[in-house]
């Protein structure tokens, strides 16, 4: 890290998709707050393949705000991809994430930074206690957050709040992929960062445009919760899950097969009525359990080999970047 990076107080990462109208106001607001609190900063805007001319707006803003950096994707990859690349580029000792739709208030940034530096938190998540979203969005969100708290053991009210603060080493240690941006606190906990706090933050009504998330995000959210729960327990040793389950099914199937054959032999020796083994459905269920057991065991073995031999990282096609008024395409 260079001396200049050491002097950078805050990196603000803002993922965006079709938010051209809100960008000038958001950028001016962030710059004003940073100047009022005498904080050095960089603002990293990550354009997630916008179609509304957001990049052209960003180029204009870069002429006015030297602290602004930008990353533009060739297409829409999703919020997790935008955060991943933003985290890679961040240089400040504290990293703040927030949405670009003006529903998050930049006025919260100094206090979030203080909680990281003075209260010793690794991560502070915003809690939109009073929300301006429709009830059809609020109640599913409450149920989703309750489920995430129960599964993860992390006592946060709002896992999906875009306004969060991180110690720099946290964002460099975690890897956000798929739709895992909802579960960054869980990923941080898995990485060993257990000092996770919460702050009630202001939530504002959307001023421009409309929400980019539909009901399908709830379905994706629960599927991702299952994934992250599984990964937290078995990502480094998939054999423990697949191998253990496979071994159990193999033993049950094998024992059942032996029992079915043993019963037939007993009846045959004692001249009792009997059926052919192949006429008994239980025999075929036992064979099925044996086959599934072998397949699960092999899945665990292959998972171990893939994990220990894989060195791939997420790769997103970045179309252009802007850094210190220098653009490369």
Written overview of the protein:
By secondary structure, the chain is α/β, with parallel strands linked by helices. The chain folds into 2 domains: 3-235, Spore Coat Polysaccharide Biosynthesis Protein SpsA, Chain A; 238-309. The protein is 49% helix and 14% strand. The chain is built from 11 helices and 9 strands. The chain has a 9-stranded mixed β-sheet, sandwiched between helices. Helix 6 runs parallel beside helix 9. The longest helix is centred in the last third of the chain and has 32 residues, at 238-269. The radius of gyration is 26 Å and the shape is elongated.
- The CATH superfamily of the largest domain is Spore Coat Polysaccharide Biosynthesis Protein SpsA, Chain A
Indicate the proportion of strand residues: 5-15%
Tally of separate helices: 11
Radius of gyration: 26 Å
CATH fold-level name of the largest domain: Spore Coat Polysaccharide Biosynthesis Protein SpsA, Chain A
What CATH architecture of the largest domain would you give? Alpha-Beta Complex
Through-space gap between termini: 25 Å
Shape: elongated
Helix content: 40-55%
Unreliable residue stretches: 325-329
* Strand ordering within the main sheet: 7-5-6-4-1-2-3-8-9
- Secondary structure category: alpha/beta
Which descriptors would you attach to this protein?
Spore Coat Polysaccharide Biosynthesis Protein SpsA, Chain A; single chain; 11 helices; alpha/beta; 9-stranded mixed β-sheet
């Amino acid at each position: 890290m260079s001396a200049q990076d050491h002097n950078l107080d805050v990196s603000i990462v803002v993922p965006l998709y079709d938010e051209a109208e809100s960008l000038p106001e958001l950028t001016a607001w962030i710059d004003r707050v940073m100047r009022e609190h005498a904080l050095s900063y960089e603002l990293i805007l990550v354009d997630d393949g916008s179609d509304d001319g957001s990049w052209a707006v960003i180029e204009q803003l870069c002429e006015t705000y030297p602290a602004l950096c930008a990353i533009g994707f060739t297409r829409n990859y999703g919020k997790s991809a935008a955060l991943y690349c933003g985290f890679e580029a961040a240089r400040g000792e504290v990293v703040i994430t927030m949405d670009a739709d003006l529903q998050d208030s930049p006025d919260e940034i100094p206090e979030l930074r203080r909680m990281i530096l003075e209260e010793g938190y690794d991560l502070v998540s915003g809690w939109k206690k009073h929300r301006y979203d429709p009830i059809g969005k609020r109640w599913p969100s409450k149920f989703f957050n309750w489920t995430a708290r129960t599964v993860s053991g992390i006592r946060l009210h709002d896992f999906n709040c875009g306004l969060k603060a991180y110690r720099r080493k946290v964002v460099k240690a975690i890897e956000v992929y798929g739709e895992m941006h909802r579960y960054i606190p869980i990923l941080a906990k898995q990485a060993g960062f257990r000092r996770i706090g919460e702050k009630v933050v202001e939530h504002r009504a959307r001023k421009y445009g409309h929400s980019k998330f539909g009901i399908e995000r709830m379905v994706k959210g629960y599927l991702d919760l299952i994934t992250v729960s599984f990964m937290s327990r078995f990502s480094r040793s998939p054999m423990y899950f697949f191998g253990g389950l496979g071994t159990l099914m193999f033993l049950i199937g094998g024992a059942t097969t032996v029992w079915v054959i043993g019963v037939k032999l007993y009846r045959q020796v004692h001249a009792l009525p009997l059926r052919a083994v192949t006429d008994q459905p239980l025999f075929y269920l036992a064979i099925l359990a044996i086959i599934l057991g072998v397949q699960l065991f092999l899945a665990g073995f292959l998972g171990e080999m893939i994990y220990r031999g894989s060195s791939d990282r997420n790769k997103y096609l970045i179309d252009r970047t802007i850094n210190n008024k220098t653009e490369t395409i």
